[in-house]
Prior knowledge:
alpha/beta; Rossmann fold; seven-stranded mixed sheet; two-stranded antiparallel ribbon; 6 helices; binds S-adenosylmethionine
Amino acid sequence: MMAASNDHLRLIAKLAERGITDSRVLQAMAEVPRDRFVPAECRNQAFDDRALPIEAGQTISQPYMVALMTQELRLSGNESVLEIGTGSGYQTAILARLCRQVTTVERIAELSEQAQLLLAELGFVNIDFHVGDGSLGWAANAPYDGIIVTAGAPEMPLDLYEQLRFDGRLVIPIGTGRPQILQTIVRDEQGPRVTDVCECSFVPLVGEGGWPADDE
Ligand code: SAM
């Protein structure tokens, strides 16, 4: 991948200032070129710390939120991670730099196909792409060490929790309105251990374990 521009380096410095302390996460954010994942008309804003529109009425998440959610997974390199909401593929790329295998599920086929092409072009080989209702998880590759959901659910989707291994971490925006609460849920022998991380605002998780399609 190409060397980071000054704008890109400024963004990484800002993430560190805002409290991203995991050096592997900061390194991955510095290595993945976000400008390749945004539409051409937004390219001059690619290294601003904000969400941007992508195709099909969806968004590429704010870099701070990508870094924070990734940090919450506490990856050390050998994990198998499930991502729900491939979108542009940007978060997918960050995860793929930091763990052994990523399974990513997107409900909009057009987005999944575009992300697949771009990530292959950028040289990623450890990503398994699927189109479908990710609110049900992806049972074929379970159990996962971590699950990250980049869309907001009304409550914790049970199928996702059950596809975590014990001590695995589910990072997910939860709530019936906006803002939602970003939660980290650890699968404990005794049951889910939930920590509220911060307020956030995500597009809805549409599916059986999320919101009905009409609410989108
Ligand atoms: N992580 C993405 C990125 O970096 O570009 C941002 C994704 S966007 C905020 C949320 C995505 O979740 C959208 O692409 C949307 O289509 C997808 N989504 C919503 N409900 C879904 C579901 N049940 N299964 C899979 N994907 C879903």
